[in-house]
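Model it.
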Amino acid sequence: MILTYKVRHGRDFSSELRMARQVADHAVRHRTFSSKDVKHIGLKSMIANQILRKYGRNKTIKKARNVNLIVPSQGIRADHEKKTITVPCLKIVLSYQFPEFEKVNQIEVDDEYAYVSVSVPEKPLVEPTRYIGVDLNATGHAAVVGDPEAGKVWKLGKRCQHVHQKYKNIRRRLQKLGKYGMVKKIKDRESRIIRDLNHKMSRKIVEIAKENGCGIKMEDLKGIRKNKKHAKSFRYSLNSWSFYQLRTFIEYKAKLHGVLVAYVEPAYTSKTCSRCGHVGDRNGKAFKCPYCGYVENADVNASFNIALRQIGVSQSDVERDMSEGSTGAPQEATARTIRTLEPHRLFAKANSSSRGSTSAIRSPTFS
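Modeled.
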């Protein structure tokens, strides 16, 4: 696995960065790959070659912006005992505190930081016997972790919604005053705060899974913003929701610790009862099952359903009742087999089954 760490270098590279910008502009204009063509600029050939390759090969780039100094692995020396990385061509020594690595692949340097790309060994994935479920939300707690076997719940990231709302109001006031430069700065500050919170949440989720010997199950939320129309009051929360970033952080942190991450279908996770498997009533963050009387927070109920839901298997209430020979609510939860389909599909399956058999099957009812 390749990871990138940010280290403050504390040096002035303004002249080198200016030359790097000139090299990148030359590469965009002439699509050249030889450092001889930019020798007159005065940048080290090792760095110039990397910039020429990056900007010369990419034909979609029309203008170079934010050009960094790029140093390849052959120009870098790492001392694992002293925890230092030396870049002779730039005459800098970087002290690092991040975990051990196999080799340094590349370093990019800007006016303040050095971005160190390293290869980190991955631990072998352990096949878990059980999973914890992670319900990601745009409102309320950003992540609710549920362990249905132990009955434990962890609620994380309540601050995220407050941060989004706070900076939304600040940007609105600045836009009315015409201070658009400040609007961008405020947006960048909001992104950094949310990124930090996502790092902390993902670290906690992986720690929970590792300590309990579990895998991690999450909903596959691809296309969640396009699936249906949403209320105007909810639209901003949905569009500012950084669920993909949090998911990515969980994935790579889990790989480092050998924790398996799996995905399930998100349909009806918060509306299905995690005890009996029937579709219940959800009102805001409250959930109640009219069949077994189970009452719980909707996000907690969803996290239990995600943990119990089988990967890649679809089974409805009617199918489960048919296989068990009963149309009544089961007395205890059916683990790892519950995945509820849409109500109209349930009725369709029930009707088709009743037409093809001698005994009629009672259709389920929904409140």
